[in-house]
Specification:
By secondary structure, the protein is an alpha+beta fold. It has one domain: Dynein light chain 2a, cytoplasmic (Beta-Lactamase, 2-Layer Sandwich). It has two helices and five strands, in the order αββαβββ. The protein has a five-stranded antiparallel β-sheet with strand order 2-1-5-4-3, sandwiched between helices. The longest helix is centred in the middle third of the chain and has 26 residues. The radius of gyration is 15 Å and the shape is globular.
């Protein structure tokens, strides 16, 4: 399998919206979800990425996603989703009729990364599962 290069930009979109401010409109349901996530004690942060061409960081929350660290996470998350979707297409043999990713969950010793791809957005949430216990 060849490496897929993510087609997105991690630089601010034209208009230079301040950090933490959405650069594209988001639906009220999404705003409610982001507010709920931010208030949960186990959530270390979230990244909201656009899925358009080019993809960009719409919003981020949490110290872990600030600055260069946020850009690294965004790059890795977009690449993981693209690679897994590519593998699903490879297995099914049908690009348009194959399975689409609904939810990805990656757990390490310290953290859990949950990724929820949507038609327009990629939402990634990093949380500390130990703080839930």
């Amino acid at each position: 399998m060849t490496a897929v290069q993510p087609a997105f930009s991690l630089s601010p979109q034209p208009g230079g919206a301040p950090s933490g401010t959405p650069t594209i409109p988001t639906p009220p349901e999404l705003e409610q979800t982001l507010a709920m996530l931010s208030g949960h004690r186990s959530v270390l942060g979230y990244l909201l990425l656009s899925r358009g061409q080019p993809c960009s960081i719409i919003r981020s929350s949490g110290v872990v996603f600030e600055g260069e660290s946020g850009k690294k996470y965004a790059t890795a998350i977009a690449r993981m989703v693209e690679e897994v979707q590519g593998a699903l297409v490879e297995v099914s043999g049908e690009e348009n009729e194959g399975d689409d990713i609904r939810f990805m969950r990656i757990r390490t010793k310290r953290h859990e990364l949950m990724i929820s791809p949507d038609r327009r957005y990629l939402l990634a949430v990093l949380h500390d599962p130990a703080s839930v216990l």
